[in-house]
Write a structure and sequence with these properties.
Strand order of the largest sheet: 3-4-5-6-7-8
Largest sheet: 6 strands, parallel
Number of strands: 8
Mean pLDDT: 92
CATH topology: TIM Barrel
Helix content: 25-40%
Low-confidence stretches: none
Number of helices: 10
CATH architecture: Alpha-Beta Barrel
Structural class: alpha/beta
Strand content: 15-25%
Number of domains: 1
Distance between the termini: 18 Å
Length: 359
């Protein structure tokens, strides 16, 4: 698999204030659907220009049509009911609880549309650069959208539910690649609960999550030049996180069993551990080192980034690339605490360092 995407990024970008305001007014009934669509289009055009000017190797629409990283799946199917609960988030200042949304399968899922067709078509119309589309990983949905005593009224087992969620995702991946998308990325924030001192996942749960993620990509044919990536997210909202700890507990199975081409891994600070788990990434695959923080305003030192790339290279036989550690705004109203100009500078730094290292 060619490794032309040395300067990568995870996908989401900070929403401009005008877009956030338009979405709030749309939800209040003050802006019609067509008006919101026009404002989204304008914001995406500017976001594509920002990415092209930064020198990054792959372009997304910034996830500007989404409320958060799960929106594509949630809007594509019937049978889900939203619930709100208080979720703990961590930062350098301690732990806080923030009201967060989740969804529960309260009926049998019924697909009513595509997950990302409209997003993909518009961004591809704007650029000749390779386009990436991000999707929520089915393993995360299977883990979070099932509720005992509710979902099992419609599915005979978690395995049956997982197979259906994975099949919906797989069909979307295949459609996107057939339409000319060069890079499809799955995002799963769920592996964080198997890591570190706050780990609370069992071996059975890990197997279920991993099997669902693998089912969505197993057997998917890549057109020439196309790639499938997988982002192991540790939570991303308002510069806070959920997951901490070394990748070691999941590395051998995750890197060895998941049939994707690229692993996008968070490595921006000490909460991600060292590079030793990268020994389990098979040769021929790519590790995208998330060394540049999307959570902080301060720029990283280019020489320091190059040293860390060298350290990672000594730990793995895989190919390497560079990116920010996560998206800049996985949740539209919970973008990280930096400016769009700082975001632009971070992307440019990724591109400059990648070219200095790999040409």
């Amino acid at each position: 698999m060619p490794n032309e995407f040395r300067a990568d990024h995870v996908g989401s970008l900070l929403r401009p204030p005008a877009l956030l305001d338009a979405r709030r007014r749309h939800e209040a009934g003050e802006v019609p659907d067509a008006g919101l669509r026009a404002i989204e289009d304008e914001a995406i055009i500017a976001a594509v220009r920002l990415q092209e000017e930064s020198g990054i190797d792959v372009v997304t629409d910034g996830e500007f049509r989404r409320q958060d990283f799960r929106t594509g799946f949630v809007e594509a199917v019937d049978g889900l009911t939203m619930q709100t609960w208080d979720m703990p988030w961590h930062s350098g200042g301690g732990t806080v609880t923030v009201p967060s949304h989740t969804w529960i399968a309260t009926a049998r899922l019924a697909q009513k549309g595509r997950m990302a067709a409209r997003e993909s078509a518009f961004v591809r119309s704007l650029t000749s650069a390779p386009v990436k589309v991000t999707l929520i990983a089915p393993g995360f949905l299977v883990d979070r959208f099932w509720k005992d005593g509710v979902t099992d009224a419609f599915y005979s087992s978690r395995d049956e539910f997982a197979a259906e969620v994975a099949a919906i995702t797989k069909a979307e991946i295949e459609a996107l690649l057939a339409e000319g998308v060069r890079y499809v990325q799955l995002d799963n924030p769920g592996y964080g609960r198997f890591l570190g001192s706050r780990a609370h996942g069992t071996a059975e749960e890990l197997q279920r999550v991993l099997a669902a993620d693998a089912a969505a990509v197993t057997g998917v044919t890549r057109p020439a030049g196309a790639t499938i990536g997988f982002h192991v997210c540790r939570g991303n909202q308002s510069s806070m996180w959920m997951g901490e700890g070394d990748y070691e507990p999941v590395a051998e199975r995750l890197f060895g069993d998941l049939p994707v081409d690229r692993f996008l891994l968070e490595y921006d600070d000490e909460r991600s551990g060292g590079f030793a788990p990268l020994r389990f990434v098979p040769p021929g695959k790519t590790v995208v080192l998330g060394l540049v923080s999307s959570k902080t305003e301060a720029p990283e030192d280019a020489a320091g980034l190059r040293r860390r790339i060298d350290e990672a290279a000594a730990a793995t036989r895989a190919e390497l690339a560079l990116s920010p550690q996560c998206g800049f705004a996985s949740i539209a109203e919970g973008g990280n605490l930096l400016t769009i100009e700082a975001e632009r500078a971070k992307l440019r730094l990724v591109a400059d360092v990648a070219r200095a290292v790999w040409g």
